[in-house]
Amino acid sequence: MRKLIVSLIILSSFAITPAFAQVKIGGFLQGLYGARLDDKNPTATEYTAAESRLQLRLEHSGSNAEFSGKVDFFYDDADIQTYDWELREGFLKFRLGNNVDFKAGRQILTWGTGDLIFINDVFAKDYRSFFVGRDDQYLKAPQDAIRMEYYNPLADLAVVWTPRFEPNRLPTGRVLSYYDPLMGEIVGVEATGQPVLPPAKFDNSEIAARLSRQIGAFNAALYFYRGFYKNPNGYDLALQSAIYPRLNVYGASARGSVAGGVFWLEGGYFHSRDDEKRDNPFLPNSSLTWLAGYERQVAANLTANLQWQAD
Amino acid sequence: MDRTYHRFFAIILTIALALPNLARGQKTLTPSEVATSYQKSFFYPGKDMRVVVNMRLIESGGKERTRELTMLRLNAESTQDQKYFIYFHKPADVEGMTFMVYRYSQKDDDRWLYMPALDLVKRIAANDKRSSFVGSDFTYEDVSGRDLSEDDFSIVKEEKLSNNDCYLLKSVPKNPKGAEYSYKLSWIDKTTFLPWKEEFYDVRGELYKVFTAEEVRNISGFPTITKRKMENVKNKRQTSVVYSQIEYNVGLKDDIFTERYLKTPPREYIQ
Fold it and tell me: Does A25 touch chain B (CB under 8 A)?
């Protein structure tokens, strides 16, 4: 890698508890600056980031329901030099009976066992944040979804329905360059148009499910996903655009303590539904991928972690 | 065998608590009886407990950081195992994070951390009970104790420490590699069996850590250390801890200590 990036994060957090009970207001002010040390980049800017960000958080918790809202206001000085805002979270969480939890609204979703390696976690990631070095909480992009969790002694079931497909946030070429397989080179500002999202209709919504239970020292889980590849790794000749091909994922994982550490194993079969016959070179092939990981304390306050991924 | 042993000491403890004069004046306790009572009143009071913990972590230069958390503890009914649920209030950047520990006396703990900003449940490797508890000068062992079978105990002497009658108990790990200290001296109050002071000595026999109980209060019949301090004499760091809103036998259910509540903390106990 010939690109060197220097980043700096300035963070200051605050929290206010108003006199009335069970409402919390908080947030933080964050400055993030990063610049490349060389200037031969195809991007629109030599900064990887130059942003000021204010997050405001409001939480209300009752005995059976909780509301959480997070809004980010930010100024991007690296590229577009304008103010913008984003609703990071806005959900209602409530209990139905003894065994069912609902979480409805804009939310961050995570499951699976990998440490920054995702197989059955087919929820939106924010790779832009990851590469420019934003705070950890920005590694995931929020989804507008309804999550239902059903707890019972046999197994816990979680189902997430995302009505409108939410893709991963990938480099666009303006701030971060990327390799474009169609052009066969690293592209920046000259990047071809934005990928086309699947049409907004009921049949194009995303469903993700997980069934999990404790078996001995292990937490075992089965996963299912029906939706689209989160990255635009297909190309539609008629549309002349990158697209998000249809995808089903079937997977399983186990995580538990082994020899004083934590061991995890996860696998998933990615079924490329638009390419059943494997005859379209512009669509991804179905594939099997798995990972194994082990984490152990090697001394007090020092943990070593090893992960292996294979396709 | 083990259970008989526990029951035996439970009986001893009952007698010791019910008839303090008899226990103190007429019967001399053996070192392991003192250790058992100490373990019971220091780490296991009540069936369960709820407490708000305020910590001040003070660096050698005087720089201070704070932690505020609510801690729920549930003792297992027939073993020495415990479950802990911790909710972080402060600092602001960790607010809302939850942490769960299944503490086993005979094997490594199970630990989970939940980060709400990422909706991430993380299993944490926990093969070392000497690790720092939430970045403080207390280790997990200092918070939840060691199994009694891991140490040899002896009573060095009986003496007064700031007007309190104490047993000076020496604990020496049977397996030197299995502990942070090579030996520990505890000044254990003869009435409450709580330690007023503990000195930790390293492999070279040098003092490196001192625990001090600064305030003891009676909370619903359980003598409780409400202010405590752990001082690392080698690196000059120290952690001061204040317990408030202490409640015993609140009726915590086992299902609170699950991933479900880790993600949605029980608001009846955590405000």
Answer: no
Q: Domains of chain B by range and CATH?
A: 2-263 (2.50.20.10)
Angle at A55 between CA A127 and CA A16, to 5 degrees: 145
Contact B144, B134 (CB under 8 A): no
Is A136 in Cβ contact with B123 (below 8 Å)? no
Alpha-carbon gap: B163 to the closest alpha carbon of chain A (Å): 37
pLDDT computed for residue A1 by the predictor: 36
| ipTM score of complex | 0.87
Q: Is residue A233 within 8 Å of A180, Cβ to Cβ?
A: no
Q: What is the pTM of this model?
A: 0.86
Q: Which amino acid is at B71?
A: M
CB contact A156 to B (< 8 Å) = yes
β-sheet bridge partners, residue B124: B111
Q: How many CB atoms sit inside 10 A of residue B39's CB?
A: 18
Residue of A nearest to B124 (CA): A262
pLDDT band at A76; cut points 50, 70, 90: confident
Q: Locate the domains of chain A by residue range.
A: 91-310
Instruction: Find out whether A125 and A168 touch, Cβ atoms under 8 Å.
Output: yes
Instruction: Using the CB atoms, write b or e for A59-91: b if 16+ within 10 Å.
Output: bbbeeeebbbbbbbebebebbeeeeeeeebbbb
- Spatial contact of A174 and A44, defined as CB atoms under 8 Å apart: yes
Per-residue three-class SS string for A179-245: EECCCCEEECCCCCCCCECCCCCHHHCEEEEEEEEEECCEEEEEEEEEEECCCCCEEECCCCEEECC
Query: What average pLDDT does this structure show over A213-226?
Result: 94
pLDDT at B174: 94
Q: pLDDT below 50 — which residues of chain B?
A: 1, 20-26
Give the closest-approach CA distance of A80 to chain B in angstroms: 27
- Residue A254, Cβ neighbours under 10 Å: how many? 17
Residue A55 touches partner B, C-beta closer than 8 Å: no
Disruptive mutation site among A12, A108, A307 for chain B (greatest number of B CBs within 10 Å): A108
Q: What is the pLDDT of residue B2?
A: 52
Closest CA to A263 of A272, A251, A254: A254
Helix (H) or strand (E) holding B201: strand B195-201
* pLDDT at residue A70 tops 90: yes
Contact between chains at A109 and B119 (C-beta distance less than 8 A): yes
A273, A283, B74, B78 from B10: Cα distances, Å: 65, 69, 18, 11
Single out the residue of A37, A39, A36, A31 nearest to residue A8, CA to CA.
A31
Average pLDDT of the segment spanning A32-46: 82
Each residue's pLDDT tens digit, B187-236: 999 999 999 999 999 999 999 999 999 999 999 999 999 999 999 999 99
For residues A223-235, give the mean pLDDT. Answer: 96
